[in-house]
Amino acid sequence: GRKGGHKGRARQYTSPEEIDAQLQAEKQKAREEEEQEEGGEGATGDPKKEKKSLDSDESDEDDEDYQQKRKGVEGLIDIENPNRVVQTTKKVTQLDLDGPKELSRREREEIEKQKAKERYMKMHLAGKTEQAKADLARLAIIRKQREEAARKKEEERKAKDEAAMAGKRLQSLSLNK
């Protein structure tokens, strides 16, 4: 009883030549409608002028963006939506590959973060940041403590040497007797 869905059916593809032919037919139909709207003025003119205008219209439309058929009430109501993005197709010759590429938000934030880190490190090495000032103060205190410890050690060593020398003198004096 059940028949298969549409997914299993054979697909038919349109060749590029057929698409071009359809586009040409649509353009021709649009031109004829425009001529009829003008009140038949173009139909009474000389054929050479009509031929020339058709050729120029055709090349202009190929160069410019092709406007798609309007859907629903778009043709009846002019809509001014500032948020609506109109898709424009660019030709390969119009692409600017050498120009600056617009970065995404994440890439911009990453670059800003790296620059801020570099600026902070420069300031830190120059001793202008709060943390650098605190580090330098701590280092100065540690240097003083180490100098005092070294001085005390030197004094203790000298005192020990003097005590040892005094002990040797006493020994040598007692042996000389």
Automatic annotation (TrEMBL):
Signal peptide: none
Start-end of Basic and acidic residues biased regions: 46-55, 98-113, 147-163
Gene: Pdap1
PANTHER family, A to Z: 28 KDA HEAT- AND ACID-STABLE PHOSPHOPROTEIN PDGF-ASSOCIATED PROTEIN
Region (Disordered): 1-113, 147-177
Annotated Casein kinase substrate phosphoprotein PP28 domain residues: 81-158
Comp. bias intervals (Acidic residues): 56-65
Lineage of origin: Eukaryota, Metazoa, Chordata, Craniata, Vertebrata
Pfam family, one: PP28
Biased composition annotated in UniProt, kind: Basic residues: 1-10
InterPro entries, sorted: Casein_kinase_sb_PP28, HAP28
Organism per entry: Alca torda (Razorbill)
Domain of life: Eukaryota
Record protein name field: HAP28 protein
